[in-house]
Amino acid sequence: MADKVLLIYPPSPVMNREDRCQQPTDDLVVIPPLPPSDLLYLASIARMANCIPYVKDYSLNSKTIEDFKKDLIEIKPDYIVLNAASTTLKGDLAILKPAKEILPNVKIIAKGAHFKIFDIKTLEDYPELDFTIRGEAEFTLLDILNKKPINEIKGITYRQGGIISRNEDRPFIENLDEIPYPARDLVDNSIYKRPDTDEVQAVIKVSRGCPYHCFFCLATPTSGSKVRTRSPKNIVGEIRECYEKYGIKNFIFWSDLFNLDHNWVQELCREIINSKLKITFSTNTRADSADIETVKLMKKAGCSLVSIGIESGNQQILDNIGKKITKQQIKDTVKLFKKNGIKIYGYYVVGLPWESEETFRETMEFAKSLNTEYVSFYTATALIGTRFYDYVKEHNLGELNFDKPYYYPTVNTHYLTKDRVFELHKNALKEYYGRPSYVFMMLFKIRSFREFYNYFKAGLRVLFRK
User: Fold this and answer.
1) What is the reported pLDDT for 214?
2) What DSSP string runs through 146-166?
């Protein structure tokens, strides 16, 4: 009889649980809950091992441990695979004890960036946990499910006979085309929608890795400094499956760094154009990696929005975090995308160690001068595994607080308390989105009543945000 594998997001806050982000979405204005893409890819891996996978996101719709326990009784899985984040670790792992009480022989596997560092400690603190996966999980999980000798499985830390052991690291997956398409048949795709038009959208992971290793980001520690890309044909194959099997025509191309290799981006865009599939997609870009030929091809292939990690309007802070971009490059990139009809989502971080009243005001004025269609102002979050986390420890910037990551600051700056950073952050969205010039700009861009309604709802959320 085939083994059953239950892959879950625990009953914790609704989050984007990709390893490098770990961000709650409840407090964000225009970022909707995303499908559990990592679990869907792992579900396809389970099928490769001739197992029967089930995917459950207990963070949606306020589901509880009781819902989880009911599923355990009904499904009776042989394995539980859960995504755990540093910021919600205690709540995420609260499912371990009841799981073992109901199914004493179930094997519980936890994955997530947290276990790159605190794998042994977590196993020590939680005796019900059997495995942690360090690094990329796909082929590590395949080895576990195929029952490869446990001491030969790279990338795991595990408990056996009361002893905790740590095997050698697993190398990064060089050929991402070897990973099967996600098992989207295991979730209700219709609940994952674009926040502006309410059209169903899917996430397609197109590349991994980033060479820049920014101060606060986990992309390089979790995915490496080499950018590894899927082949354009492989990506378009997944797009076609979504289009023809699920009727999905809107996509987020998820990557740590999408547009570093212009030739690859152009080849992908041409592959999409030649496929005759009429889609829209959003993705990310660096402010120093956009050229006019690539941007025009992106637009022709269906790119409707790019997100840019602007982070700060203060050049010294940009230099300190290793961003390796200038404010002028940011201005030029924003202008280029605007000129070609592609909307821009600007990301800013408030409360980095060098933040002061003056640098925050500089950031606000810079953001308003760029006047991008969307912005998010995150509070600086010193995630475990980042250089930021090490800096906090070295410079004693206060006790880390992960209660509301990206919303309430985790630490003080050299010049501001956490409470003051929170006040600045809390008012930043109102100041940005409340400008009459911004409101009029967006009114001219609205193309349907549905868009108007969704923008109106988002505006109310900004206005009455606590």
Assistant:
1) 87
2) TT--GGG-TTEEEEETTEEEE
How much of the chain is helix, strand and coil, in % rounded to 5? 45, 20, 40
3-state secondary structure of 268: helix
User: Tens of pLDDT along 352-404?
Assistant: 999 999 999 999 999 999 999 999 898 888 888 889 989 998 998 887 777 76
The one-letter amino acid code at 53 reads P
Q: How many CB atoms lie within 10 A of CB 423?
A: 12
* Predicted confidence (pLDDT) per residue in 161-178, tens digit: 889 999 999 999 999 999
pLDDT, position 71: 97
DSSP secondary structure letters along 206-259: -EE--SS--TT--HHHHH-SS-EE--HHHHHHHHHHHHHHH---EEEEE-SSSS
d(CA 83, CA 109): 9
d(CA 104, CA 290): 54
Cβ(253)–Cβ(282) below 8 Å: yes
What is the mean pLDDT of each successive set of 10 residues along the chain, which is 466 residues long? 94 65 55 85 98 93 90 98 88 94 97 92 96 96 97 96 95 97 96 86 95 86 92 98 96 92 97 97 90 96 95 96 94 96 94 97 97 91 87 86 74 93 90 87 67 49 52
Burial class (CB in 10 A: 0-12, 13-18, 19+), 43: buried
C-alpha distances out from residue 452 to 281, 444, 457, 462, Å: 21, 11, 9, 15
- CA 148 from centroid of its chain's CA atoms: 30
Q: How far apart are CA 77 and CA 102, in angstroms?
A: 11
Cα dist from 388 to 16, 326, 352, 363, 425, whole Å: 20, 21, 9, 20, 19
Which residue has tokens 């004890």?
97
Structure token digits, residue 255: 């990557």
Structure tokens at 387: 């250089």
Q: How far is CA 256 from CA 44, 136, 169, 184, 434, in A?
A: 22, 14, 21, 22, 31
8 A C-beta contact, residue 160 and residue 150: yes
Ordered DSSP codes for 305-337: EEEEEEE-S-HHHHHHTT----HHHHHHHHHHH
Provide the 3-class DSSP secondary structure of residue 362: helix
Residue 95 and residue 349: Cα distance in Å, rounded? 33
Specify the DSSP class assigned to residue 386.
S
> Closest by alpha carbon to 7, among 116, 80, 75?
80
106-129 as b/e: b if 16+ CB within 10 A: bbbbbbbbbbbebbeebbeebebb
Which tokens is 35 given?
């499908």
